[in-house]
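Action item from last week, closing it out:
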Amino acid sequence: MRLWLREEERRPSPPPYPSDDARALLVGCLVWVAALIGVLVAASVGVDVPPLVLSTAVIGVVLGTIGLFYSRNRR
């Protein structure tokens, strides 16, 4: 049993699978927006929300939006 093949014995690599990165980023960004809304509602009701939770949701929305613009403009 051999652990590797010589280059001429290998099959060619398959073509890359086409994916829609913008759709995945949009769904992720919408989840972060929902989390941010939930944190803001909880804070307005009077629940003690740690600042780290609020900043995490805000950073998630910002990074998701940046990724969405990058993904759409890359094409």
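Closing note: Residues 21-45 form the longest helix (25 residues).
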